[in-house]
Amino acid sequence: MFITFEGIDYSGKSTQSKLLYQKLSAQNIKCRLFREPGGTRISEKIRKILLDKNLSEMTALTEFMLFSASRSQLVSEVIRPLLRKGWVVICDRYFDSSTAYQAYAGGLDMEKTDLINNFATGGLIPDITFLLDISPEDAFRRSLNTGMGKDRIESKSLDYYRMVRRGFKSIARNNPHRFFVVNGIKSQEYIHSVILKTIKKINQKFNAL
Questions:
Q1: Sign of CA dihedral 199, 40, 35, 105
Q2: What separation in angstroms does the CA of 5 have from each of 13, 57, 106, 147?
Q3: Which of 1, 35, 101, 133 is most buried, by CB atoms within 10 Å?
Q4: What is the rounded end-to-end Cα distance, in angstroms, of the chain?
Q5: Residue 29 to residues 92, 123, 177, Cα–Cα distance (Å)
Q6: Which pLDDT does position 128 carry in this prediction?
Q7: For position 204, what pLDDT does the model report?
Q8: pTM for the complete prediction?
Q9: Exposure of 111 by Cβ count < 10 A (0-12 exposed, 13-18 middle, 19+ buried)?
Q10: For the chain, which domains are there?
Q11: Where are the beta strands (DSSP E) in the chain?
């Protein structure tokens, strides 16, 4: 089973993906958790380039192609082999992020973006995608509370993130068979419980959760 988490930065998706991974591991379910970009030696090197605040001149197309290269390596080297063995794979971001960030907000051609997303992943589509939805204003307030510096992408404007959010919501509407939208403002415990209930409804393998 392939499960992905999406949302704008500081939506809580990374927290929820970790909570799910910890829950499944505690139940002795074979699972792995990855983040995008990253997850392989090559992908982690690409991540450093993508998040480098000193590379502010990077275009949306360059950004997209780098994400796609990182994702292609992750899928071929790690995700597909694990899925073939029957493992559960959880990914913090996947190609829906590229569609929302670089196409909807970055202005790239949607049809070409979809083609490259499909090409880079070999057509691998998640079984379930959880979209943690919060406003950019709420995300900005959360970022202040962390006390951590922002990377290159996190430093973009609120208007940019408003477009990203609209992009995610549009993608979810167009893919109702796999997308589950969760209110990201709710408590961590509540969101985690919703995620577990949703997974149990879809796959009986997880009834014991």
A1: negative
A2: 6, 28, 21, 24
A3: 101
A4: 15
A5: 18, 25, 24
A6: 97
A7: 74
A8: 0.93
A9: exposed
A10: 2-206 (3.40.50.300)
A11: 2-6, 31-35, 88-92, 128-133, 179-183
